Amino acid sequence: MSSFPQAVYDIFTSNSTYINAALFGGLLAFAATGEWVAERAGTLNISVEAMLLAGAFTSAVGYDLTDSVVVALVAGILGGMLVAAIQAEMSHRLSADQFVVGLTLNILIFGLTGFLDREIDPATKTAARWTVPILNKVPLIGKALFSQPWPFYLLYVLIPLSWWLVYRTRWGLELRASGENPQSADVSGIDVNRRRRQAVYYAGLTSGLGGAFLIFVQVGRFDDSIVGGRGFIAIAAVIFGGWTLRGTILGCVVFAAALSFRLSIQGLGYQVNSELLQALPFLVTILGMALFAHRVRPPAALARPFVRGLR
Amino acid sequence: MSIATTKVAPTSKTWRRIRIGEWLLLYALSIFGALLIAGTLVEATGGDWLPVLSALLDGSVRRPGRWGETLGVAGPLLLVALGTVVSSKAGLVNIGQEGQLLFGAAVATYFSFLIGGPGPLNVVLILLFGAIGGAAWAGIAAGLLYWRGVPEVLSTLLLVTVSTQTVAYGMRWEWLLLAPQSSRGNRNQVSEQLASNNRLPRPEIFGNEFPLTVYIGLVLALLLAFGLGRTVWGLRLRLLGHNPRAAKRCGVSEKTFGVGALMISGGFAGLAGGAMLAGGGFSFGNYQFMSGFSDNIGWTGLLVALVARERVLLAVPIAFVFACLRTGSSFVGSTGVEGRITDVIQGLLVLALLIPPAVMLLRNIRRAKAAATVRV
After folding, report:
1. Alpha-carbon distance B234 to B47, whole Å?
2. Which of B94, B165, B302, B307 to mutate to test the interface with A (most CBs of A within 10 A)?
3. What is the DSSP letter of B10?
4. What's the pLDDT at B185?
5. Which range, A162-171, B300-309, B331-340, has the best average confidence (pLDDT)?
6. Closest residue to B165, CB basis, from A104, A275, A303
7. Are β-strands A129-131 and A147-149 bridged in parallel, bridged antiparallel, or unpaired?
8. CA atoms of A156 and A147, how far apart (whole Å)
9. I need a labelling partner for A67 at 20 to 30 A (CA). Which of A155, B270, B301, B349 fits?
10. Nearest Cα to Cα of residue A279 among B261, B303, B103
11. What is the ipTM of this complex?
């Protein structure tokens, strides 16, 4: 076994580290972007895990039926939105507790996709690889970011689009108002629960895409353990990023690096405690919150239901 | 307003009867809806719903010895749910029971073999250390909440994975949890087995046997119902949950009660873990600790508490129903339908049970508003 600096050098120069990080980070970014929008509107959307899983499953079924990745992506979006519909309508129309709904959905969708997977067993494969000409020659990160199966590139549209929607449109302003001060927003004529529902639907859309990403870019076939708690890491990324989009994406990168180190460390034959590496994203988030929770401010009405006339 | 309308306005007694009827109707409708969806799902995938239902009942209560198994599962579920009720009464959202249960069970395993006292004493110690382990794990979240301002919803959730990994680390070393090479198979990552005098007794009743956990759960449920409803401690806890500012004015320390409530909640989960280890039975391994030991009992127990909506005694029957789904699922496989359908039924049921209270809340608000307009 070689020295520690040598190991660090090896990891940071191996191409697979960056490619794996891009794959993990891509999934996290899809989920976390939508989660960020939902949280800015005031929903701590725990069901993102279920949205990813449902999106992955429906996109796999969509591909199995039509052999078209585009249709599969649409099917993935629909799957994510279906979960979002239950979450949104139950917690922001009926004002049921959003954590209860989210947790239940996670368990329900895990059971449902597992059940249907045995019955249907959709056949899938990864999508065609597109390589961006010049940019993929950039050392280290070029291959990881610019030579991927094509659904990966949707991220380059989705992230700026989400930023623009939330910070530069009237809809985004109303959405943020619903997350910060629903009472005032309500008085000024904003339908708070409607905005919150829309935000959750948006999270369903991006997470559904994330599920499809999991099938067509990263893994290639459906399995009920395909998501494996990474929805929770996406939530952690939003918190880690202090509820800004920049910070959220940074969180995705950091956690993706932690996840990919685990693979490349083992691939290069180094011995590091794998349990520690698996727990790392969660430990980093907890530590980050412990250090910065006083400084970053969550949306003031995060996870508080809004019912007009109550409180 | 004319006199005629005031005449037909129902009295409060009639109102109450209408209310109760409304509640029952709503609950019946939503449960029926959930079962209808599940049934449709079974039919759509080429199964038959009647044999599935029959297998569920066979596996959970009808076959000889099965309701004992079901009670054995219901015990830990109830314990987890009781703890959850305590923390939610104090206005805290603990959703990390799965991790607290696992860590509690691991601590119980470690100390039971470290101390190895005489049989009965050791059983008590297992339960005690289980509770301490779970409380300590929840204590991390409590500490982070009150000294660093980290929301407990997130920290308890994130700590579940950390707990799983911590325990997995412990399972790698013989000086921590792993059994010595001689007493386990080559690749089996399990702890040593509890000696027969270190296990919770499983008395037999009407041909069914189940561990003492069930009685412990019932006694604790009664104690907790009394404690929360009829003591100063319970009043203070509820006060904190309803209005922290008012609680502070009344001299209820947010820190003491909040930390206490979270740790009690974790302690109950850990106790459930210890009881699963010492009680053995259907799905809880063979008096051995292993990775994946918690086996979703923490999550399901949380669901039980959420469905019971902070009512302690209501958690008892709900824990039993959820345990039925779990023990019944192993029989469903024989009908040719995948046993995972019970997870689906469980999820649908919880969602369905969430609907009536939410609908009633909205209706009550609407009614109050209507009443207010009439008065003006």
Report:
1. 49
2. B165
3. P
4. 65
5. A162-171
6. A275
7. antiparallel
8. 13
9. A155
10. B103
11. 0.85
pLDDT value for A120:
81
Q: Is residue A298 part of a domain?
A: no
Does A229 contact B161 at a Cβ distance shorter than 8 Å?
Answer: yes
Q: Are A94 and B358 inside 8 Å of each other by CB?
A: yes
- Give yes or no for B365 touching A (CB within 8 A): yes
Contact B236, B86 (CB under 8 A): no
Residue A279 in any domain: the answer is yes
Exposure string (b/e) for A204-224, b if CB count within 10 Å is 16 or more?
A: bbbbbbbbbbbbbbbbeebbb
Which domain CATH number covers A228?
A: 1.10.3470
**B344 min Cα distance to partner chain A (Å):** 5
- Minimum-distance CB partner of B359 among A94, A276, A283: A94
- Chain A residues with CB under 8 Å of B367 CB are none
pLDDT tens figures, A66-110: 888 999 999 999 999 999 999 999 999 988 888 889 988 998 999
Q: Which of B193, B198, B183 is nearest to B288 (CA)?
A: B193
Tell me whether residue A49 is in a domain.
yes
* pLDDT tens column, B215-243: 899 999 999 999 998 998 899 889 888 88
Residues of A in contact with B347 (CB under 8 A): 104-105, 107-109, 111-112
* Whether the Cβ atoms of residue A196 and residue A204 lie closer than 8 Å to each other: no
Q: Which fold has domain B58-336?
A: ABC transporter involved in vitamin B12 uptake, BtuC (1.10.3470)
Chain A residues closer than 8 Å to B302 by CB: 103
Which residues touch A5 (CB under 8 Å, ≥6 apart)? none
Residue B266's identity, in one-letter code, is G
- pLDDT tens for residues A259-286? 887 777 777 766 677 778 778 878 887 8
Kindly state the helix (H) or strand (E) to which residue A147 belongs, with its residue range: strand A147-149
State phi, psi for B280 to the nearest 5 degrees.
60, -160
DSSP state of B296: T
Question: Chain-centre distance of CA B90, in angstroms?
Answer: 17
Q: Judge whether A71 and A63 are in contact, CB under 8 Å.
A: yes
| H/E segment holding residue B207 | none
